[in-house]
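Just curious. Invent one:
>
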Amino acid sequence: MAYVITESCIKCKHTDCVDVCPVDCFREGPNFLVIDPDECIDCTLCVAECPVDAIFAEDEVPEDQQQFIALNAELAKSPNWKTITAKKPTPDDAEEWALVKEKLHLLDRNGA
């Protein structure tokens, strides 16, 4: 079982979670992060670091966020999504986007 990043991360992209990952399983896109399920060791360290509660164990992903399980796996394998291993500055408008719902259509699938 891997951990999954869900919709709350879109356009927020806090990167506190990547600093604590012991296996560098995070991949970065322009406005979203994903976890590579083949690299994740289920350590749970990233969950507490996410200020928008976007990270869930695969078997605990909310019903309305289930599509993010496959989306994390897909984008983690995209050659345009590179490994991120250190915290970066939070986008200036992250707090505005933190509570916005239904933003999947805003996900930029191109490389970072």
